[in-house]
Specification:
Blueprint: H1 5-13, H2 29-46, H3 57-62, H4 90-104, H5 113-132, E1 139-149, E2 169-176, E3 180-190
Antiparallel strand pairs: 1-3, 2-3
Length: 192
């Protein structure tokens, strides 16, 4: 017999819970899984949306929605060290910056807005990589290279950080030529 429209609405609004059956000794997990997937298909046909809990996990896998594999979490034991094993040598960092800046920004260099942007990015990356090769323990680096053309203008730059005055610091080096200037500022921050 066909249900009247009112009976169909009442069934959709208030679904009746299915009676819980005891597990029969001859039935395994595979049959239970098939039952849960058929219930999930019934819900999908009705337009109901179930939650993705353990009981509905098989439904999500069958519908093509698979969760990405979980990445193992890295756990480190605390070292309780307050000082670096290989502390940063400010003079060595300054020599690296001078060498790289003088090699790239010499008398042969001509300022061009587009080329200077890419050149500054390459120089800052090279400085950062050369500092990292020294394997200073527990330091993070920020390298800023600013290049501009002298056109009777001024330059004012300001950077704010919250840092430890004993362990953190910066090194600045400036190259000035008649047609352009280049300023490199490297910040080194101690990371516990």
């Amino acid at each position: 017999m066909a249900d009247s429209p009112e009976e169909r609405r009442s069934k959709e609004v208030a679904p009746v819970a299915a009676p819980v059956k005891e597990a029969e000794p001859g039935k395994g997990k595979k049959e239970k899984k098939d039952k849960s997937t058929s219930e999930g298909k019934d819900k999908a046909a009705k337009g109901e949306r179930g939650s993705l809990t353990k009981s509905h996990l098989g439904v999500a896998a069958n519908m093509g929605m698979s969760a990405p594999p979980a990445k193992p979490t890295m756990r480190f034991m605390p070292t309780y060290r307050l000082e670096s094993k290989n502390p940063l040598n400010k003079e060595r960092v300054e020599n690296i910056i001078k060498a790289v800046m003088n090699r790239h920004y010499n008398d042969e260099y001509m300022f061009h807005p587009k080329h200077s942007l890419h050149m500054a990015a390459q120089v800052s990356e090279e400085i950062k990589n050369r500092i990292k090769l020294n394997n200073y323990d527990r330091y993070r680096y920020i390298v800023l290279v600013t290049v501009g053309e002298f056109l009777m203008q001024g330059l004012y730059s300001m950077v704010n950080f919250l840092w430890d005055a004993e362990k953190d610091g910066f090194v600045t080096y400036r190259v000035e030529r008649p047609s352009y200037f280049a300023v490199c500022t490297t910040f080194y921050l101690y990371y516990d």
